[in-house]
């Protein structure tokens, strides 16, 4: 180990390079004359040729400082520098030949064949000996048997970059065992000495190859394909890593630290959403846009998405001071957006909101502000009514009064056959908004979707915190199912639906298949490298107030029709006269002053007959003959 514990002195490296040049020059002469006797005419020039070549090579190495590199860390840049320096010296030799031939002796100092052979030999030896030393050093300091075996899924450009990143940044720790690729043409090939196999060999490699990590390098991989790969890896307790999108690479170069463990969110994503960006841009560009709840998970992402379409100004309205400040910093420093206005305001304050409308004259409103936590609102019905219904009514009324072109409301699947105060409050808000368009030129559009991944209070965030703490992971019921969508997906579809709507529609998003929460938790535990029942436990706590086992996107008497976007459907729902709904909402809001929850719930059930409380103290109100 002694030779590898110290850095080779620079003078030694310099002398070694000169010795290589001397050896290469001698070998070139032998090769040139097929290892036979060298002609006397050539031997007579040795006293000139050898000092000349060594002097030029030595000066060029001093100038380029090729000897300063630490050999055990030799890189492709070092090899490139050696090639260019040697090539420059050989060009100088060739020019010297021309000078001596035409102006001095009419002969060449060094035959051109010798020049070529010397250049090729010296360059090859200088680079290969450095790389050989590097390989020996790595093997001695970290033998291959001690390195972690890695399989890269994807043998394309990103896969090759991933391998080189591992070699460059973490070659001491990782060894790429194989590439896996779906392309039949690549099967049986090798990339930088690593074999490429088809996906049919993946399970065999994981089973027999003692593979610790599989890195998915494919950009825009099909969502179902990714899920199948992950399931195979989890079967053999292989950790899955993911290469980030090219757009997030630093200065166009992938860093080893950017290769992260795959997150459960990416397994619930669908394929890339195809948006009608021209239509969205036509609606948003050069317009004043207001977003309520702009500091929340959905509202903030709507703002980010809107920034792509060059609005004249974005008005961000919310009551959350710190999150709004964070959004301000993000818009300034990341998006470099200047055309925005941060406003701390409560949508329930009619006078405050009226001042904002009069000052900024928004042309499009995205209404995201709402209370969304089901059990919390079950305990505080008056707050749900105040924000979700009164707040929506105020924004909708001001939109009509101010001549807003489009009002897009963010609703929820919990408004369908509601079982909770929160769901019923959103359904009433939907009814008010849908009917409002009949009384004004403002186009009122409602979008309805399920749970979003990564939102505040999301089950994913709760599970992640519980797993980090060592458990237990708490689930309300072993059979509970939910629809999931990522925040960017949901907000992209909100913009699309808002652009295509003509007023009065309730747009439903394709949420894919419902996910069993227990299966979701088990997969998250496996992705964390833990064993269920050994390292961490799952505890079932029972359904919470207002919670039901299965969510729906359409009520039983409703149906839907497709739109030009296969991921957006238009719900055919019962429509109500605006005055009828307005009177019912006014009557409900009058009850707020009494703060009498039972009276509020009874009125809500009168407005929404399909509202049946579940796991709630208000189930009594659903029984026949309840006063």
Chain-wise SSE layout:
Elements: H1 2-5, H2 10-32, H3 40-43, H4 46-64, H5 76-104, H6 112-141, E1 148-153, H7 157-170, E2 174-180, E3 190-191, E4 194-197, H8 202-208, E5 213-216, H9 223-235, E6 239-242, E7 260-261, H10 264-267, H11 277-284, E8 288-292, H12 297-306, E9 313-318, H13 321-333, E10 340-344, H14 350-360, E11 364-367, H15 374-379, H16 381-402, E12 406-412, H17 421-436, E13 443-449, E14 451-453, H18 459-468, E15 473-475, E16 481-482, E17 484-486, H19 487-500, E18 506-509, E19 515-516, H20 517-527, E20 538-540, E21 559-562, E22 568-572, H21 578-590, H22 597-607
Parallel strand pairs: 1-2, 1-5, 2-4, 5-6, 8-9, 8-11, 9-10, 11-12, 12-13, 13-18, 14-17, 15-20
Antiparallel strand pairs: 3-4, 6-7, 16-19, 18-22, 21-22
């Amino acid at each position: 180990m002694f030779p590898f514990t110290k850095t080779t002195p620079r003078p030694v490296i310099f002398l070694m390079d000169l010795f290589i040049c001397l050896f290469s020059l001698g070998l070139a002469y032998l090769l040139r004359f097929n290892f036979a006797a060298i002609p006397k005419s050539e031997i007579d020039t040795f006293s000139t040729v050898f000092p000349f070549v060594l002097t030029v090579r030595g000066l060029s190495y001093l100038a380029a400082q090729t000897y300063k590199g630490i050999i055990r860390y030799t890189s492709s840049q070092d090899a490139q520098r050696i090639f260019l320096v040697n090539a420059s010296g050989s060009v100088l030799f060739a020019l010297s030949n021309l000078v001596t031939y035409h102006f001095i002796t009419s002969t060449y100092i060094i035959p051109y064949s010798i020049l070529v052979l010397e250049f090729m030999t010296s360059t090859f030896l200088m680079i290969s000996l450095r790389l050989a030393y590097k390989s020996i050093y790595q093997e001695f300091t970290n033998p291959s048997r001690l390195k972690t075996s890695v399989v890269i899924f994807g043998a394309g450009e990103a896969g090759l970059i991933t391998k080189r990143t591992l070699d460059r940044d973490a070659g001491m720790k990782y060894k790429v065992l194989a590439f896996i690729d779906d392309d039949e043409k690549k099967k049986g090939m090798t990339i930088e000495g690593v074999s490429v196999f088809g996906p049919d060999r993946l399970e065999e490699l994981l089973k027999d190859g003692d593979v610790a990590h599989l890195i998915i390098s494919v950009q825009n991989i099909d969502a179902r394909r990714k899920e199948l790969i992950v399931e195979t890896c989890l079967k053999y307790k292989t950790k899955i890593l993911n290469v980030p999108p090219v757009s997030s690479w630093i200065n166009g170069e992938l860093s080893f630290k950017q290769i992260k463990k795959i997150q459960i969110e990416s397994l619930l994503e669908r394929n890339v959403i195809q948006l009608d960006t021209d239509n969205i841009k036509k609606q948003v560009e050069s317009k004043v846009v207001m977003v309520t709840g702009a500091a929340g998970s959905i509202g903030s992402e709507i703002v980010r998405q809107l920034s792509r379409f060059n609005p004249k100004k974005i008005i961000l309205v919310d009551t959350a001071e710190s999150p709004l400040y964070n959004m301000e910093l993000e818009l300034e420093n990341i998006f470099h957006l200047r055309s925005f206005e941060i406003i701390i305001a409560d949508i329930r304050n009619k006078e405050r909101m009226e001042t904002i409308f009069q000052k900024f004259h928004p042309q499009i409103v995205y209404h995201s502000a709402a209370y969304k936590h089901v059990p919390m609102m079950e305990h505080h019905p008056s707050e749900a009514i105040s924000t979700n219904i009164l707040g929506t009514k105020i924004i909708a009324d001001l939109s009509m009064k101010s001549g807003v072109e489009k009002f897009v409301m963010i609703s929820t699947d919990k408004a369908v056959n509601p079982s909770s105060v929160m769901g019923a409050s959103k359904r009433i808000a939907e009814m008010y908004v849908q009917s409002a368009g009949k009384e004004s030129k403002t186009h009122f559009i409602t979008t309805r979707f399920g749970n979003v991944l990564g939102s505040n209070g999301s089950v994913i965030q709760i599970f992640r915190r519980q797993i980090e703490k060592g458990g237990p992971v708490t689930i309300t019921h072993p059979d509970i199912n939910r629809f999931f969508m990522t925040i960017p997906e949901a907000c992209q579809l909100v913009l699309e639906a808002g652009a295509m709507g003509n007023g009065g529609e309730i747009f439903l998003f394709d949420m894919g298949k419902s996910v069993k929460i227990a299966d979701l938790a088990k997969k998250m535990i496996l992705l964390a490298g833990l064993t269920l029942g050994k390292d961490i436990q799952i505890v079932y706590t029972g359904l919470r107030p207002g919670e039901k086992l299965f969510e729906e996107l359409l009520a039983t008497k409703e149906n839907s029709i497709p739109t030009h976007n296969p991921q957006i459907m238009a719900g055919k729902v019962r429509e109500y006269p605006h005055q009828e709904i307005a009177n019912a909402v006014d009557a409900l809001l009058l009850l707020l002053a009494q703060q009498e929850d039972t009276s509020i719930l009874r009125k809500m059930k009168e407005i929404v007959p399909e509202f049946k409380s579940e796991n709630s103290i208000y189930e009594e109100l659903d029984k026949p003959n309840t006063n």
